[in-house]
Every structure is written in structure tokens, then in C-alpha cells.
Amino acid sequence: MHQSKLDFFCKLGYAKQDICKVLENLGQEALEDDVLKELIRMGSKPQALESQVQPSPLKLVARGSCSTTPGSKWLREDESDSSDCLRPIVIDGSNVAMSHGNKEVFSCWGIQLAVDWFRERGHTYIKVFVPLWRKDPPRQDSPIADQHILEELEKQSILVYTPSRKVKGKRVVCYDDRYIVKVAYEKDGVIVSNDHYRDLQNENPEWKWFIEQRLLMYSFVSNRFMPPDDPLGRHGPTLNNFLSKKPVLPEPKWQPCPYGKKCTYGNKCKFYHPERRHQAQLSVADELRAKIKVPFSLGKEEEKCNHSL
Q1: DSSP E strand stretches across the chain
Q2: Quick one: which of 25, 168, 231, 297 has the fewest CB in 10 Å?
Q3: Beta carbons of 162 and 130 less than 8 angstroms apart
Q4: pTM (two decimals)
Q5: What is the pLDDT of residues 129-176, one digit of tens each?
């Protein structure tokens, strides 16, 4: 039991010495939620968060050579930042599976569909959280479909089981929603779920803002995972910008001028003129001056030609 807890919190990025210290204080039979709270109280942070907070010292490098920062090795092993433009993805496995199973069956195939959708977009950091008791054989009151998918995703280091155990025949389950929000918050990523996590919003004001701004809802349409094109509403960012670390601003859409070619505003017109696309837009006064100067100059050239003859 001690080793399983140690391995679990090490996967979350906590230092081994901090975990051992907490287990010594609370005892080997302490619940995982209590261990997590004690780690937070001690000020212990996952290695990913520490590497972001502590700036790396400046180092002179010869021109043309490549260098690696101390934190880059950890990031490369975890594959959390192999893409500079896409956000990490944290999936609420229970929510996705039950949604795909019409709230009657825990459908692991739904989790696979969601993971494949983000993989095809190029996301390299994808984590799915599922309670440990979902490993147990399916029962009549909690049916599970395609359970082998969970094992395959675990081998790929995508699926993480939140701890649970039995005490005197009664199952003790840790709150998996807290793991989901905490990891997504620390990774500055996106939560994939149709749950609003209202209790966690009330628990932590920083989590409240994060959940409101980084929650990606979804639907399943004929075994197709479909997030909305406007995750934060019609006036919010597009789906591509929502999932990107560096959003791309859309090109301005110009409204055509209602007067068309009859417009007399020249370059002061705020509307779009397709006929002026390849020529400089002049004001009315400049256009009149241009029309007057052209024949005047042409007349002078004709006079010079006559004198030369």
C-alpha cells in the first residue's frame, strides 16, 4: 500500500522525500485525499510547476550551437510541452464514458474516441482520470463496455487511476474531480467534461476562474466526439484559439460600402471598396487636383513639341 501511494504521487510530480515525510506524519493507512492536502499545506509543488515558477539562469551559448535548459529533460520525458502551440488536455474519464454510454453504461470506447480526436489535432499531453475501482469486473448495477481499452491507455501513460480501496467491505473512493481540476490548473491546460465542478469552484477562487475559462464541453453524435466551435459562446474564442497557447487573431472583415462606385468619401470612407483594391484611395479634393493637373501638363508638352518643330 505504501509503495502504491508513493508511485501515484510521484506520477503527479511530487518529490519522493516530501511524500515519504507526509506518510510518516499521517501513517501508512492515510487516505490519498489527506496526503494530497498535507502536501499542499507543506507548500510542496509538482516538478512541472516549480520549473515554470523558477527562472532558469542565463547562459552564454556559442552562435549556431544548441542548448538545453535543466527543465527541458523533464518536459521531454513527460511530453507535456513537445508542442509549443497546443494546450495540455485533461479528460474527465467517468464523465466522457457515461456520456457515450447514455448514462447507463460506462463506455470506455467513448474515452478512446475523445483521446483520438485530440491526438489527430496534434496534442501530445493527454491525461485521462478514472477511479481505480473501474478496474474491477463489471457488475449488474455498474456495467462497463470495452474495459480492455482502459488497460491499453494505461500502458500508453495516458490513463491515470485515482485511488480507491475497501474498508470492512465498504469502498472508499477519493474525489477524482479534484485531481482533474488540480492537474489541469497546474499544467495551464483544458478540462474536457460536461460537469461544471460547482463545489470545487466554491472551494477555490482561482479554480473558479480556471473552470469558467478552460472547461471544454462536448457531444457524441453517432460515435463521433464533437466539441463546440465556440466553447465560451458566440462572442468568445474559436475552438482552435481555445485549444492554443498562442491564439491567432482573425483577419478583419470589411463591410462593403453601400454607395458602391458612387461614394464621394474617397480614402476617408470606412467601408470596403473592391474597385479601389489596387489603387491608392484619394480624397475628393486630391482627385479633383489630379484631374486638373493631368491635362495641364499634357498641354505644356504639346507646346514644347511645336516650338522644337
Answers
A1: 89-92, 106-107, 126-131, 144-145, 159-162, 164-167, 170-173, 190-192, 215-216, 219-220, 225-226
A2: 168
A3: yes
A4: 0.56
A5: 999 989 888 888 889 999 999 999 999 999 999 987 777 767 777 888
